[in-house]
Amino acid sequence: MKVRGDTTSAWLGLGLLLGGLLAGGGCVSRADQLRARGREVEAALIAERDRVLQAPTIQAAERDARLDQLTRYRGTLSAANVAVGAIANIPTSTLREPAYDAVEELYSTIMWNIPLGPGEKIRDLPLGFRSGQFNVNELTGSTGPSRPTGSKEPDADGARPAPPGFTGR
Questions:
Q1: DSSP line for 74-118
Q2: How far apart are CA 63 and CA 70, in angstroms?
Q3: CA dihedral sign of residues 115, 118, 122, 126
Q4: How many Å apart are CA 148 and CA 16, to the nearest integer?
Q5: What's the pTM?
Q6: Which of 26, 77, 122, 151 could form an SS bridge with 147, CB 3.0 to 4.6 Å?
Q7: Are 45 and 70 in contact (CB under 8 A)?
Q8: Please, what is the end-to-end C-alpha distance for the chain in angstroms?
């Protein structure tokens, strides 16, 4: 069997395949886009933590306060990352997009706040995350969940129970 010496057609085929994959970028789900954004935010938090740890001019008290602040942002980021997976379980589909919007706004808020030090005016957490966990009721103005978090009992309307760490409907 003779192998063709011209690899142009192979490169052209590879280019068309990659181009097709890139053009199909609109097929990525909103949850996948937010997961990617969450990884970017986490990388920025790690980079800032490393910068603070290696900065020779920062006093110990200021360094500790800054690291505590970054740790709080990391906890908030974890809540957002869990929320991205939980949003698909929201029984009312009309709440999913506002919930995804709240996660996206939270990621932007964390990114905005990362370079700010303790005592500086930071951007407040968006609705849905003000309680330190994801709460859809904050998005809707509802007074509270119709059943306890983690309950195995369905609502009267037959809605699925919320996953642990998720409040609201």
A1: HHHHHHHHHHHHHGGG-S-GGGHHHHHHHHHHHHHHHHHHTTPPT
A2: 10
A3: positive
A4: 52
A5: 0.67
A6: 151
A7: yes
A8: 65
